[in-house]
Amino acid sequence: MRIVIAEDDPLLREGLALLLRAESLDVVATTDNADAFLTAVDEHRPDTAIVDVRMPPTHTDEGIRAAVEARRRRPDLAVLVLSAYVEQAFATELLHDGGAHRIGYLLKERVGRVEQFLDALHRVAGGGTAIDPEVVAQLLTRPRADSALDGLTPREMDVLALMAEGLGNSAIAERLVVTEGAVHKHIRNIFAKLGLDPTSPADRRVTAVLRYLEANCKN
Q1: Average of pLDDT values for 73-86?
Q2: How far apart are CA 97 and CA 117, in angstroms?
Q3: Exposure winner among 12, 115, 118, 213, fewest CB in 10 A?
C-alpha cells in the first residue's frame, strides 16, 4: 500500500509515518498543506491518503476540499480523513462527493488506538467505509430529516448505525450478539423500508448509509 500523509502537526505527521512504516506500509510522501498534498498525489499516485480536515492557511476545511479534489483526480484513491473533533457535516460532504467507497473519517484520538486505526485504514484501502463510532453516536441523538428512517425499528437503526461505521455483517452480528442471519434479515428490511430497489445499479448498502448520514446532518 502506497500512502501519502497530509497533516500540519509535525509530531502527528511523523508519528503516523513511523507507525505505518513499522507495519511495512510504504509512506511515499508526507505534507503539511493542501496544495503540497495534491501535488504529492499527482506525483506519487498513491493507493491511500491520510488527510487532516483542518490545514493551513485558514485551518477550516482545506483538508476536506483537498480530499474531494484528490478523489476527483484519482477516483480509485482511498481517503482516510482525520479530525480533532466530531464534524458531521464534513463527514457527510466527503461521503457524498466521494461516493462512499474507499472513504474513512476518524477522530485523531483513534490513532492512539493502533489496532482500531490500522483496521480502519485497511478497511478503507480495501474498498470499504470507516466512520468513527463517536460521529455515529452523535448522529443518533439528532432529529432526522428523512421520514423513511422513522419507519425503522430500534434494532434496524442499530444495524444501520453500525453499517455507517463501516462494519460488515459478521462484525455487526458480533457487536449486537445476534446471528449473521438476523443481521441479514434486518438489512433486507432496511432496504425495503427505504425503498432501495435491488435492481438499481447503485450499491444499496452505500445508499442506505448516505441516507442515514445526510438525514442526521441536515440543519
Answers
A1: 87
A2: 23
A3: 115
